[in-house]
Amino acid sequence: MSTKLFRTRTAAVAAVLALSATACAVPDAQFVPLFDQFELVNNGDNSKLEKVADGFAALLKSEPTNPVLMAYAGTTTAMKSNTTMLPWKKMSYAEDGMAMLDKAIAMLTPEHDKPIQHATPGSLEVKLLAAKTFLSVPGFMNKGPRGAKLASDLIASPLLATAPVGFQGVVWLTAGEVAVSEKRAEEARRHFNKVIELKAPQADAARAHLAKLAK
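^ thats the sequence. predicted structure below, dont judge the formating
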């Protein structure tokens, strides 16, 4: 093979790889407004949950290989278990959502360590969504230990320092809450103090946790 032909083919391969990497993300104009509504749901406004879940499902159809979108679709599906009194429907939403989260984790490759949506490493965002969902479902579903392990993996990741401060704050706060639930008070204090040290948006919540630990 001639050097010129080799370089041409190499350039073509590089172009395809670059395209596949960027094709995984959806434009901020589509993602950010939906994420902002997701945050409202996260803070207790379930009136927007159906719309947000449908929105992430639609984005996932446009980018089915995007693990971050898969994770958001899974999380919002699991959240819908809190909107019905029917036991079978609660279980269906929870199980379907967690299955999507498992699939999102399985989709992760080293390529997803790069930012995918809103300047956050995709692998971290998937694992955080999974951790928080697994930690929130009823204990009989036996997902708590896996959620705790994911939270531990997140704070140990060297990628965490590259994420936006708000994202880091959620991670450290979640790890602190896990430590509290497992009666590791000193570790919990370290994690909550890290949130404050970062001057993250979750600093007041961290202070409130520290105040409870001081009693």
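Strands lie at 115-117, 120-121.
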